[in-house]
Amino acid sequence: MSQLEISIDKLELAAAKLRAISHPMRIAIIDLLADGSHLSVTDIYSALGIEQATASHHLNILKNKNVLVSKREGKKIYYYLQNMTLAEILECINRCNNDS
Questions:
Q1: CB atoms within 10 A of CB 45
Q2: pLDDT tens figures, 75-95
Q3: What is the DSSP letter of 67?
Q4: Alpha carbon distance 31, 37 (integer Å)
């Protein structure tokens, strides 16, 4: 494959991740985790002022698209970003919005 050819599989994965983060609440979750924090569902829904079920729904979407990773410690499950790149992309978008 030449450098100019585009991998459809890679594009589809990128589009799926972008769709996963394309909700204001999911962007807020990513912002919470952008400093490298590992937060529980309770930490997240408390910080955002939303219901536990709503937080769990959005966390599940982000986890299923490999945006987030979860780790169980005792009875709690902690979530963190799989890769800081998406947080950097959101930061870039925020900077672009501030320039206009």
A1: 20
A2: 999 999 998 887 888 788 778
A3: S
A4: 10
